[in-house]
Amino acid sequence: MLAYLEFEKSVADLDGKIADLNAKMAAGDAPAGARDEITRMETKAEQTLKDIYAKLTPWQKTQVARHTNRPHFLDYCNALVDDFTPLSGDRHFGEDNAIIGGFGWFRERACLFIGHEKGEDTETRLKHNFGMARPEGYRKAVRLMRMAEKFQVPVVALVDTAGAYPGVGAEERGQAEAIAQSTACCLDLKVANVAVIIGEGGSGGAIALATANRVLMLEHAIYSVISPEGAASILWHDSAKAQDAATAMKLTAQDLAALGIIDGIIPEPVGGAHRDPVQSIANTGDAIAEALSALDGMEPEALRESRQDRFLAIGKSLAKA
Fold first, then answer.
1. Are residue 44 and residue 70 in the same domain, yes or no?
2. What is the C-alpha to C-alpha distance for residues 195 and 186, in angstroms, rounded to an integer?
3. What pTM was estimated for this model as a whole?
4. Count of domains in the chain?
5. Cα–Cα distance between 188 and 205 in angstroms, integer?
6. Are 245 and 62 in contact (CB under 8 A)?
7. Over the Cα atoms of the chain, what is R_g?
8. Does 87 lie in the same domain as 210?
9. CA proximity to 224, closest of 163, 134, 181, 174
């Protein structure tokens, strides 16, 4: 069942009335002209949704990016990758289900697909720790990316995490070092890599997989060094000011494209990816294919240097801003 966000109340009311009339029609108890009324309300609901999503605030985009019905890594993987074979373990401590990675065929091209998985219900969210990886998740990512490099297979990363897991055990096992090693591995790869922020791109937990030749974002995804709630707590000692923080942080795809942080924005269906996951996943697949094709023919060292130059240029441009 679709969950409505707070700012979608007007659409929820219309959809509720439509559902009531449809139920009455099915029961043969509908008033005269019910079909025309349903058509009118459906048109109004569609237009209302378009109007709302045409002017979302950064905080509203944050809510959309976190929507529980939004497609996650496994949804994309199941739809886009043939013969996906997941690989487990970091060969140091154990397995981390917050990051899933494996090899498969994407549009007749062998690829490593890796990314954060949040889960879709209580059981799977707990299993995947809400997409918040521990050190072994990032060490597994390094292992798989090096394997992809060995066999000259491009890397596709789908990022969707509020951040790396901040628990005591994770810190004891070297969380910061693991994130740094994963980021460094991404920078050093001599194969093409493409990253897509499909929901939340939170802090180092995101950039550990998103340091790529091409970085794309879905239209209503977010990407930031810290969550709006965390920033509000630090700046104003009041997490209730998250809305103000979201606006100040420039975390939307549109803001980041203007700053040159990302390379492109993938359009979402009206009302967000959660309303039409099939179309959203198809759009993402097309964007990944285009990005990989643009990198075809580049020599291994050129891919590495181009990626490093890309991120150095970001730092220089932001230092001047």
1. no
2. 10
3. 0.92
4. 2
5. 18
6. no
7. 21
8. yes
9. 163
